[in-house]
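Thread amino acids onto this structure.
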């Protein structure tokens, strides 16, 4: 039973209708810093869908805050009418709202505008690649006043709360950390002094807004940066914030330069809830647990066990704006779950693109993608139940079309069914559960283990055939790859073939690297074994570490390009490369495969020299090609056909889902 998640809670001066907090995210929906209709419609859908408290931002408090015009602004009075329009929209949906006050400090890119990059001390910032300027006492006073003025604007706009950003490596974090704060005045040295800047910001903001507006502080429960703060220091700072007037402590983990994953699928569900629990032990105000919580049952358990008082669900609400309503009504399988891929949220932020969602093609496009009932229902056959076919079938049926979905495999999902479990992406399978629920809800007739043929189409006589038959692995047309020890990466991941001790993988894109990690993991201990051995002190920590990462195979990846993992997004690429490195996988770039012979691969290196590598097995990971022979056969017979997804052009899952969705709106 999920009950506590939907209990109201009083936080300072506001009453939140439930315990779900949609935490602040940069969305790139505000190209000149002001509230847009797109921003309002995006969040309006989430307030309607059960987000009790919505926090927007970060919002720049001055010209040096971020250095990016696309950041939401709260730095002057001209933005107040737009913010007021936003707050009014959220309130009309029954939600509450806050704005996060953002000052990046050393993480700012304002140097591109000719402005000094402010920080507690002078140093070279690894994140912004800028040399910082140590703040003077006048700078400190000015920036604190900017926080205060921004809070006043939020109150005037009708927001219920403001959030002081003191996490993720931004300015207040930089003052807190001995790694970045080398001052020898009242704002540096012992932790009492390093906390002074943050304490004063919270105190002055509280004095400005009074007791009829809620003050939230976002803290890092652990910086996950060597030489910086752990949960021990985070507790001290959180308690100090409470003393200065904070009504709610919102706990996240890590800085942007942390080498510990924060929001990728590598982090287990609710993996940082322990940080919130540590802070909750020392404060009396409510605490929010965040990072990788997209399961309502996990959220409920955290609340019931007293680990936290509220739950931060950010990307879970991007993936499904109705996350809260569906959970409250027990429609769990209908929740379109975030799979923590980062492909269209965090990656888009880095690429200065509007945030979207791999699994939800409507994210950020709510107004123009309304799903309307058709006035001309059609009889449609869909060939292929991968992401493109499933998305099309679900949406087309919701619009009122009669849809039959076929797949020659024994279940829906296409490539997702086999790659998700073996590449440690089990949450991708949640999307298949969602589709199954949608098929039942909208009446899609599903036929698995049955292939669409021209004869079947002739018998059924549909108005339209949608071909979503996916892709097949590319195989170069050379005799060398016909040898028995040359196999496809797809077959390795499917478990169809075995590999020897010496493995050479040709191709260092995402598939090649994922296959390399899969093979290099053979012979390592499982998480359960690790827990058992560690719990009983059966092996020394350094031995356990080796057992975790050192397998029984020697894996080498060769790549023609100068860089590996080029098709992997920036927010996850470093995690994958870290895994490649830790597992001892050798990577060779600038390598052109010349020949494959029994027991070896010959490649030409970047200097034009031929090099031999031992290889019991050669694995091809050289991309894929469309599998659309059915479309050609049907079109030859003059039948109406549309080709979508990988069958049209191989791409990522999000491209396939988009194609299915867009076509379903058109037919």
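Threaded sequence (667 positions):
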């Amino acid at each position: 039973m999920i009950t506590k998640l939907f209990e109201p809670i009083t936080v300072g001066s506001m009453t939140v209708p439930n315990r779900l907090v949609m935490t602040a995210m940069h969305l790139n929906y505000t190209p000149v810093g002001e509230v847009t209709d797109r921003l309002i419609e995006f969040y309006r859908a989430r307030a309607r869908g059960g987000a009790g408290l919505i926090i927007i931002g970060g919002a720049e408090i001055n010209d040096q805050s971020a250095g990016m015009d696309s950041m939401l602004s709260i730095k002057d009075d001209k933005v107040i009418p737009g913010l007021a329009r936003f707050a009014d929209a959220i309130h009309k949906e029954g939600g509450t709202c806050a704005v996060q006050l953002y000052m990046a400090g050393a993480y700012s890119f304002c140097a591109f505008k000719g402005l000094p990059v402010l920080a507690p001390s002078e140093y070279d910032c690894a994140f912004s690649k800028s040399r910082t300027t140590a703040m003077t006492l006048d700078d400190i006073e000015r920036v604190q006043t900017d926080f205060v003025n921004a809070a006043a604007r939020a109150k005037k706009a009708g927001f219920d709360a403001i959030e002081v950003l003191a996490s993720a490596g931004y300015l207040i974090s930089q003052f807190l950390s001995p790694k970045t704060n080398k001052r020898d005045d009242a704002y540096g040295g012992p932790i009492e002094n390093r906390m002074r800047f943050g304490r004063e910001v919270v105190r002055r903001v509280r004095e400005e807004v009074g007791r009829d507006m809620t003050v939230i502080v976002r803290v890092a429960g652990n910086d996950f940066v060597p030489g910086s703060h752990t949960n021990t220091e985070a507790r001290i700072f959180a308690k100090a914030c409470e003393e200065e007037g904070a009504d709610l402590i919102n706990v996240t983990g890590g800085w942007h330069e942390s080498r510990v994953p924060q929001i990728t699928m590598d982090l287990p569900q609710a993996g940082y809830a322990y940080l919130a629990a540590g802070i909750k032990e020392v404060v009396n105000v409510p605490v929010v647990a965040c990072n990788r919580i997209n399961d309502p049952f996990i959220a409920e358990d955290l609340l019931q066990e007293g680990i936290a008082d509220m739950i931060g669900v950010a990307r879970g609400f991007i993936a499904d704006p109705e996350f809260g309503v569906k959970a409250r009504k027990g429609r769990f399988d209908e929740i379109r779950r975030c799979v923590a891929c980062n492909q269209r949220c965090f990656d888009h932020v880095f690429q200065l693109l509007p945030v979207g969602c791999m699994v939800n093609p409507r994210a950020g496009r709510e107004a123009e993608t309304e799903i309307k009932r058709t006035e001309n229902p059609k009889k449609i056959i869909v060939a292929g139940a991968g992401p493109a076919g499933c998305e099309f079938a679900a949406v087309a049926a919701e619009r009122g079309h009669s849809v039959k979905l076929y797949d020659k495999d024994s279940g829906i999902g296409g490539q997702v069914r086999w790659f998700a479990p073996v590449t440690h992406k089990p949450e991708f399978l949640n999307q298949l559960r969602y589709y199954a629920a949608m098929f039942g809800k909208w009446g899609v007739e599903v036929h698995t283990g049955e292939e669409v043929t021209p004869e079947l189409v002739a018998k059924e006589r549909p108005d339209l055939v949608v071909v979503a038959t996916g892709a097949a692995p590319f195989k170069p047309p050379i005799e060398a790859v016909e040898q028995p020890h040359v196999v496809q990466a797809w077959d390795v991941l499917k478990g169809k073939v075995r590999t020897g001790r010496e493995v050479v993988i040709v191709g260092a894109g995402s598939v090649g690297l994922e296959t390399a990690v899969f093979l290099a993991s053979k012979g390592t201990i499982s998480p359960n074994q690790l827990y058992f051995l560690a719990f009983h002190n059966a092996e020394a920590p350094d031995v356990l570490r080796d057992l975790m990462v050192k397998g029984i195979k020697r894996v080498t990846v060769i790549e023609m390009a100068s860089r590996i993992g080029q098709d992997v997004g920036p927010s996850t690429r470093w995690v994958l490369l870290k895994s490649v490195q830790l597992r001892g996988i050798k990577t060779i770039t600038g390598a052109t495969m010349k020949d494959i012979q029994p027991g070896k691969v010959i490649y030409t290196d970047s200097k034009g020299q031929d090099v031999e590598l031992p290889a019991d097995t050669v694995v091809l990971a050289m991309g894929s090609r469309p599998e659309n022979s059915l479309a050609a056969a049907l079109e030859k017979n003059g039948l109406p056909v549309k080709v979508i997804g990988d069958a049209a052009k191989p791409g990522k899952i999000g491209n396939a889902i988009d194609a299915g969705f867009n076509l379903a709106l058109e037919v």
